[in-house]
Amino acid sequence: MSENKLIKAIKEKGQTMEAEMSFFDHLEALRWHLVRSAVAIVIFTSLAFYFYDFLFDTIIMGPSKPDFWTYRMLCRLGDWLHRDGFCITKINISLLNTEMAGQFTLMINSALLVGITAGFPYLLWEIWRFIKPALHEKERKAARGFVAYATGLFVLGVLFGYYVITPESINFLSSFTVSSSIENKFSVDSYLSSVATLTLATGVVFELPIIVYVLSSLGILTQKFMRETRRYAVVVILIIAAVVTPTPDMMTMTVVSIPLFILYEVGILVAGVVERRKLARENAA
User: Fold this and answer.
1) Final residue belonging to a domain, choices 173, 206, 239
2) Does the pLDDT value for residue 129 go beyond 90?
3) Last residue of some domain: 155, 188, 206?
4) Statement to judge: residues 200 and 215 lie in one domain
5) Total domain count for the chain?
6) Is 71 helix (H, G, I), strand (E, B) or coil?
7) Are residues 93 and 188 in the same domain?
8) What's the pTM value of the predicted model, to 2 decimals?
């Protein structure tokens, strides 16, 4: 009897050790995926350092110049509508550096932000490579194109934030004054933070359909729930649009909120597709 107990204990210990080794193997695999992602970000950051003059003068400072693409398109829209007030001929912005190492820090931070943004698709690909072996064949087929869809939505969000939200916000905030006795002079760190936050935040918000897909696959979110809470979602989207765009005019809020409404409706469709696939698999089983 004691011998049987001993054999059973040895088997249980072996299973425990095997599970522990499997867990540590997964950690090791995850570590290498993260290491490769970090290397990719370092490479993109190095390229940003190499092309820094173009990066700073054309891309980062672009929304602060009257000849920026968005301002030119607004001017053309005003001409087409035969209305004044659309053309922006001057951006009242003056940047200052108030720290000894401020410009050096600015160069590092801006290059790193560009590196992270450019390396984000590769990070998604590495995450997908880590998750893929744990999925069944049907789940792999269902999730095929995850990296492409997530990257496409992120790029669309970044472009929308950079060409729509950022210039509108900079134009408003640079000319907004509480009193004529207060002169607007902004630190260059504050300007970089505003551009990066508005651009990257919009890129993350555009990942809403992917988030809905994951939550629906886990059974946390349903199409019925999203439809029933649509009225509350409208309020939340309007609040997000008001926070993201600190401009008081309804035009800017409408331009920002429309893509968010579209993304929410796309999320409802995605949740429906996931539920139908689940039902089909259950019926087949």
Assistant:
1) 206
2) no
3) 206
4) no
5) 2
6) helix
7) yes
8) 0.79
Q: Is 215 exposed, middle or buried (0-12, 13-18, 19+ CB in 10 A)?
A: middle
What is the DSSP secondary-structure string of 211-240?
HHHHHHHTTS--HHHHHHTHHHHHHHHHHH
Q: Per residue in 141-188, pLDDT tens? A: 666 777 888 899 999 999 999 998 888 888 887 877 787 788 888 888
Q: What are 187's strand-pairing partners? A: 96
Cβ atoms within 10 Å of 250's Cβ, excluding its own:
9
234 & 275 share domain: yes
Range of the domain at 151: 2-206
Among 113, 104, 92, residue whose Cα is nearest residue 196: 113
pLDDT tens track for 235-279: 888 887 777 665 556 766 777 788 889 999 998 998 888 888 878
Among candidate residues 201, 222, 205, the one with its CA nearest the CA of residue 213 = 222
**Residue type for position 83:** R
Q: Assess whether 217 and 126 both reside in one domain.
A: no
